[in-house]
Request: fold
Amino acid sequence: MSESDSQSARLSVTALGHRGEGLISYGDAQHYLPLTAPGDELQVEFTAGSPKNWTLMQPGPDRVTPPCGHFGACGGCGLQHLSDIFVARWKAAQIARALHHHGIGAVDIRPTRTVPAASRRRVGFTARMISGQTILGFQAARSHRLVAVEQCEILNPDIAAALPGLRLVADLLLSGDRRKKKSDVRIAVNDTDTGLDILLRADGIDEFAILPPLTERAGGLPNLARLSLNDTLVMCPHPPVMRFGAVSVTPPPGAFLQASRAGEMALRGLVLEALGEARRIADLFAGCGTFSFPAAAQAQLVAVEGDEAMVRALDHAARHAQGIRKFKALRRDLFRKPLSADELKPFDAVIFDPPRAGGAAQAAEIAASAVRRVAAVSCAPATFARDARLLIDGGFTLNWVVPVDQFRWSAHIELAAEFTRPD
Ligand SMILES: C[S@@+](CC[C@H](N)C(=O)[O-])C[C@H]1O[C@@H](n2cnc3c(N)ncnc32)[C@H](O)[C@@H]1O
Reply:
């Protein structure tokens, strides 16, 4: 490489891209630099036309001191150097952009509701043996490297308190000869209303041999409700229970839950607002009933979900529930076999909360149906906007969107929205 391949330039960050990385222009090219902020003045070193290093010369107006010592190394919180106010506005602007991309403008995007720090109740860790030591942590940004979690600003106190115990449990699975394959151990933690529901995923483990020492070691985990290893229940000092409205649900191990209680409450309030006075509701992509049971206090409801274990949990909870109207849980793959416009006839409103891929086939059926109200929740503005286009083309109006920032300090965006159409 010749000397002329290396160059240096003082450049300003002009915007934040959709992945939360700062945008710089150099010559005719544009580049995204992680961990930079709009308005930052940088001295950037280029090699063969690509930025290799940068030095912050003058901070942008929205830059703040990141609270976590792992910032920059850990891939979890790429936006900790930006103020909450900036991130709230940026997330709202990202939603507006996605909608605009599908020709949807002039939408009432209301102020972002940001959850407090230390409120994450659902989290996935990776544990790996490195040089004879068990490391428990999060994936580094843009790499397979693991960053040990000693401190974490997003975890709620119960999960944070369990970190040393989780590391000991992972150490048992990673050391010794009980595994044919020494691959990573994945740990999914749901902090339920009655304690931690922990699911360990370890390939090639001799479950029979590991159970006695695992049970002993897990005894040291604070506030444990249930521990599972792959498909095996290891111990359950008391059942993990989530209270959704007036109904108690025991979710299956590793079940989907909204990422924080504060986020769930914000989304739930918005969903109920969007449902209005509806009396017959279909909850599509219902999970374990986060919105189904609160909505079923006032309306007959059919909850449709693709995961069999979650449908069983819904059904069991409904059978033992008081204070809800007529309720049915149905298993269905809504990608392959969406509820048709005809099947939607009995309903005056729909809750629509698909995974990141969205639910285009289902949105098209809602558009073709006689349903009058849609309470939408989404964790992916791009697919939300695509599905919104289908609903709007079917005669719906998008009345409002509220960003709910429950993935604090990350570029992930959650939102709730209301669609209605006249009788
Ligand atoms: C974003 S979560 C929402 C769950 C629930 N509304 C809540 O707030 O807890 C999406 C749900 O869709 C379910 N799901 C994913 N793919 C599906 C499919 N093809 N058909 C039906 N449900 C599916 C997942 O199991 C998950 O429970």
Observations:
- Residues 110 and 172 are 48 Å apart (CA to CA).
